[in-house]
Every structure is written in structure tokens, then in C-alpha cells.
Design brief:
215 residues, alpha/beta, six-stranded mixed β-sheet, five-stranded mixed β-sheet, 8 helices, 11 strands
């Protein structure tokens, strides 16, 4: 039996992803987010795990370094990788939105055209604004996006929100919701054919576990 390689994202999705996979019998001793091992193996079950930076998971899966992966729909959409999206796993729920300083709101969304927007998601943002006929200047940031308007780098931000607490703490107000996001199970297109049986069984097991959780 060939090894099945699974890519898991560091951060908030790691724990629920690892726990869900374990319920489906897909686990390995020493599989933790902080592991110093780059590849964690379960020899008995012929499983390899890669724990990667969130933005890198779709890349590992698309190029076949991993057969399957778990990643947020936001990152999946932003990277635009050529993958099969198999399941909505339901956890990691958040949404992508545009926010502006609370004391500098404008009447219409289009009033923000031709301004600068700071974001980790320039492709999603550009597609969203283009559909509304709005030309924007996109400033790609990787750290605290909320800092953009505070220091005058941008007039607005496009970012992920879970509770909205960080926005309030930085005097920012959400003005438009762009997309919702949850964790997804993704599969390499070639692996789906070559390892169809194993991937199908795992996918179906995960589907049943998720259905049981809803009941």
C-alpha cells in the first residue's frame, strides 16, 4: 500500500483538523503543531503528515507533495490552486469583509473607489471591487492588517473576521461582507485517480462523522 500524505495548516485550524482526522482513523503519534519533525509518519497505517504554513497547504497539495489537505475556503480562493474541493468541514467559521475607520465612513461603498486597501487577500479583494466597477490600490500585508488605516498606509482593509473584537479595539467598522469561509478538505487531482480507494473511504468516513455531529 502506498503512503497517503496529508497537509495540515498551522494555527487555528490545526487542532480541529487533526481531531477530525483522528476520528476517521487518520492519525500519527507525535502529530502536534509544534513538532520539530517536518514529516510525521504512521508506518502501520501508511500515513505521512506535513504541518505547513496556512498559505502553503494548497501549494503542497496542487503539486502532489501532499495527496490531501485541510485549508480555509478564504485561502483556497485567494491562492486559486487547481484542486478538488471534497468537503466543507464546517469548522474555522469566519468571513472576509471590508472595514474602514469608524469616524471616516462614507455614504456609499463606491465612494471608496480609487483609495488604498490593505489586505492579505488582494486577489479576492480585486475581484470583489472589479465586479462593482471600483478601481482600488491594493497593498499586500502579512501581519496586522488593522494597522493600515491607523498609520495612514491605507484608507480601508479587507480581512478575515471571527468575532469583530479586534476591529472594535482599533476603531474600525465593517461596511461590507465579501465572503464566508470554513475549513475544506482538498485533494490533489492526480492522487484522486491513483489513490482513489483510500481517498474515497477517508472522505466518506469524514462525511459520516460530520453528519453525526450535526444530529
Amino acid at each position: 500500500m502506498e503512503y497517503l500524505t496529508v497537509a495540515l495548516p498551522k494555527g487555528k485550524l490545526f487542532k480541529p483538523a487533526a481531531e477530525l482526522l483522528a476520528k476517521a482513523g487518520c492519525d500519527a503519534e507525535g502529530l502536534t503543531e509544534k513538532s520539530r519533525k517536518l514529516v510525521i509518519t504512521n508506518e502501520e497505517k501508511k500515513l505521512n503528515f506535513i504541518v505547513a504554513k496556512t498559505a502553503d497547504v494548497p501549494t503542497y497539495v496542487e503539486y502532489g507533495a501532499a495527496d490531501i489537505g485541510i485549508i480555509g475556503k478564504d485561502v483556497l480562493t485567494e491562492t486559486g490552486r487547481n484542486l478538488y474541493e471534497m468537503l466543507d468541514l464546517g469548522f474555522g467559521r469566519c468571513h472576509l469583509m471590508m472595514a474602514v475607520p469608524a469616524d471616516k465612513q462614507r455614504q456609499n461603498l463606491t465612494d471608496w473607489a480609487h483609495t488604498r486597501v490593505a489586505t492579505k487577500f488582494p486577489h479576492i479583494a480585486e475581484e470583489f471591487f472589479n465586479r462593482r466597477g471600483m478601481q482600488m490600490e491594493y497593498i499586500k500585508l502579512n501581519g496586522s492588517i488593522e494597522l493600515g488605516p491607523i498609520v495612514g498606509l491605507s484608507e480601508s482593509i479587507v480581512d478575515i473576521v471571527e468575532t469583530g473584537t479586534t476591529l472594535k479595539e482599533n476603531n474600525l467598522t465593517e461596511i461590507v461582507r465579501i465572503m464566508d469561509s470554513t475549513a475544506r478538505l482538498v485533494v490533489n487531482r492526480v492522487s484522486f485517480k491513483l489513490k482513489f480507494d483510500r481517498i474515497s473511504v477517508l472522505t466518506e468516513n469524514l462525511r459520516q462523522i460530520l453528519e453525526e455531529q450535526v444530529k
